[in-house]
Design a protein that fits this description.
Blueprint: H1 25-57, H2 64-91, H3 99-131, H4 145-174, E1 186-191, E2 194-199, E3 203-209, E4 212-217, E5 220-225, H5 228-235, E6 240-244, E7 247-250, E8 254-259, E9 265-269, E10 274-277, H6 283-286
Antiparallel strand pairs: 1-2, 3-4, 3-7, 4-5, 6-7, 8-9, 9-10
Helix pairs in contact: 1-2, 1-4, 2-3, 2-4, 3-4
Length: about 290
């Protein structure tokens, strides 16, 4: 459906250097998450020595090994729980979700995340204690270990959500984009006995129409027998993104995005056409 030879691209505006020294999104993400983990190590070191000092001040026997195992198991459990937290922050954040709803949803998510952290932490400790020939007892100073940990974890989850949001924002803003894959130079569109070879850069938007797609080109609409998914796959490298389950737009043809109260949005194209987008795809044109 596309010509064999495609125009090359000159690369992104960011080039190969910048504020991050040319780090890719994956490398920058790994670096920032590693920094977070190192910060966690510093915090648990402070907690360990505070724990030891408090127990010694109370005249209680203290094992530095046990203290490190207690704090370390909690840190490792949070490192595991960071995975679902990462995806939660990625999907549930402004402007994708309105701020009041973002706060409410994350307030609810704090409970299952905390329970997951508690389960992992207790499991790690049980395994470590068994390796030492000991028995681990899940207790708390107030006699309610679940509630005790929940109170601490809600604060930790709030802090983690903010940090992960900041990491994702930094990566989106400062990581260099991946090398662009040349898109197709033209799209072959059959019209009866005639096949049009449309320059991809002149196609403004594409809409699903049953077993066909409607292609907006130079102020006219051409009907082409193909699925929207197939066209999306073919034109993705040329900068076409989905704004609705039934519509694609060429991103560099977007002139304005207006967000509605419902969370959906309107896209104004360079031709003046205004297209409705679904809120689940808003990040495709706002990122």
């Amino acid at each position: 459906m596309t010509d064999e030879e495609a125009r090359g691209t000159s690369g992104g505006a960011a080039g190969t250097s910048g504020p991050t020294g040319g780090l890719s999104a994956r490398a920058l993400t790994a670096l920032l998450l590693a920094a977070i983990f190192c910060f966690g190590l510093v915090r648990i070191a402070a907690n360990v020595y505070s724990y030891i000092a408090d127990r010694e001040g109370a005249g209680l026997a203290t094992s530095p090994t046990i203290a490190w195992m207690l704090e370390g198991s909690s840190l490792i459990a949070w490192a595991v729980m960071m995975i679902p937290c990462w995806f939660a922050v990625r999907r549930i954040r402004p402007p994708r979700v309105a701020l009041p709803w973002t706060v409410a949803i994350h307030a609810l998510l704090a409970i299952p995340v905390s329970l997951g952290h508690i389960a992992l932490m207790a499991g790690f400790r049980t395994a470590l204690w068994r390796l030492m020939g000991l028995t681990y007892h899940f207790t708390a100073p107030d006699g309610s270990p679940i509630l005790y940990e929940l109170r601490k974890d809600i604060s930790a989850y709030t802090e983690l959500v903010f940090i992960l949001f900041l990491v994702q924002w930094l990566v989106a803003r400062y990581a260099i984009p991946p090398a662009a894959t040349p898109g197709p130079a033209t799209l072959a569109v059959g019209d009866g006995a005639v096949t049009h070879h449309l320059p991809v850069g002149e196609i403004e938007h594409v809409a699903a129409a049953g077993n066909y797609v409607e292609i907006a080109w130079r102020g006219q609409t051409l009907l082409h027998r193909a699925t929207l998914t197939a066209i999306e796959s073919e034109l993705a490298a040329a900068g076409f993104v989905r704004i609705h389950r039934s519509r694609l737009v060429r991103r560099d043809a977007v002139r304005r995005v207006v967000t509605l109260k419902s969370g959906d949005f309107d896209v104004e194209m360079e031709s003046g056409a205004v297209l409705r987008g679904s809120r689940r795809y808003r990040g495709n044109v706002e990122g």
